[in-house]
Write a structure and sequence with these properties.
The protein is mostly helical. The protein contains ten helices and no strands.
């Protein structure tokens, strides 16, 4: 039995039909992804608003699914909810787990929270080296609290080698953002430093750029 033959014209039509089908499928996928992305953005915005007004039930309903899907901002806030017992039972270890997931994506707020947990040993074993590591990451993104805390670690040599010039630099950067405690601490620290150390610290501050 002979096989049916396809003419060149039929082949061209079939090829065009395949291209059309794939184009329609790609367009449908693009519309779905855009719609899904818009929905996620809306849920995050509404979840943040609910969190800020302490509507824990709504915040959890909107943020927890986003956190599971990998949204760093939602993960940071879910960590906060566990740490502050907002709508869930307090669980320091679970807070740390969510903060770490967000921090590893570069979320500055999560980096700051994770550093604080390591500094106090809350939900994780106390480790000032790890605290310094995560405070530094957040400080490099311009987080004032992290900059002030990192300065304190450098002044005392906790988790990092003692370095008054770097302590002064981080306080200087925090003070430049209007942090009142940093301004007071900057003057106190400068009184303990040599003029050369202060000059070096100011040079470092002038050359600093957020990452």
């Amino acid at each position: 039995m002979s096989k049916p033959t396809t003419t060149p014209e039929q082949g061209a039509v079939s090829h065009r039909r395949s291209i059309a089908i794939w184009s329609l499928a790609a367009s449908a996928l693009a519309v779905f992804l855009i719609s899904s992305s818009s929905s996620m953005a809306g849920d995050l915005e509404n979840g943040v608003a609910a969190y800020n007004r302490l509507d824990a039930g709504t915040a959890w309903r909107l943020l927890q699914p986003l956190a599971e899907r990998g949204d760093a901002g939602a993960q940071a806030l879910v960590g906060n909810m566990y740490a502050r017992a907002l709508g869930v039972t307090y669980d320091g270890a679970e807070a740390v787990r969510w903060w770490r997931r967000a921090a590893e994506q570069g979320d500055a707020s999560a980096e700051e929270e994770l550093a604080t947990a390591y500094f106090f040993g809350d939900g994780v074993q106390l480790d000032h080296s790890e605290a310094a590591k995560w405070f530094r990451k957040a400080a490099q993104q311009g987080k004032v609290f992290a900059q002030t805390c990192l300065a304190s670690l450098y002044e005392r040599g906790e988790g990092v080698p003692r370095d008054l010039a770097l302590a002064h630099m981080w306080l200087n950067l925090a003070a430049a953002q209007g942090q009142p405690v940093a301004k007071v601490e900057l003057d106190r620290l400068a009184s303990k430093m040599t003029s050369g150390e202060v000059a070096e610290a100011r040079r470092l501050a002038r050359g600093w750029k957020p990452k």
